Amino acid sequence: GADLQQARAAAAAAPTDVDAQLLVADLDISGGHVDDAFGRLLDLFAALPADDRAPVRARLLELFGLVGDADPRVIRARGRLASLLF
């Protein structure tokens, strides 16, 4: 029920607003834009202080499971997440 244009505008206006970025990532996934969703969340994860990253990591893991562990997009995103963690 979210308005895509409003959600994107809110996310663009607040690039480190976790809730705004999660909403757009969810909308991207539901629209089939998997790489966009993963890229958005991974960029957000990299920009946040370590103490604020947990919800983004949790959502990424949920989305990885939704898309499927064998999907090449998930494999790439998992690799980037691992490099950001270490």
Could you outline the blueprint of secondary structure elements for this entry?
Blueprint: H1 4-13, H2 18-30, H3 34-47, H4 54-67, H5 72-85
Helix pairs in contact: 1-2, 2-3, 3-4, 3-5
Summarize the structure.
Helix content is 76%, strand content 0%. The chain is built from 5 helices and no strands.
Could you please describe the fold and organization of this structure?
The chain is an all-alpha fold and 86 residues long. 76% of the residues lie in helices and 0% in strands. The chain is globular, with a radius of gyration of 12 Å. The chain starts with a helix and ends with a helix. The model has no long low-confidence stretch (mean pLDDT 95).
Radius of gyration: 12 Å
How helix-rich are the residues, as a percent range?
A: over 70%
Q: Return the structural class.
A: mainly alpha
Largest sheet: none
- Strand content is under 5%
End-to-end Cα distance, whole Å, is 37 Å
Overall shape: globular
Order of helices and strands: HHHHH
Helical segment count: 5
Let me know the number of strands.
Answer: 0
Low-pLDDT segments: none
Average pLDDT figure: 95
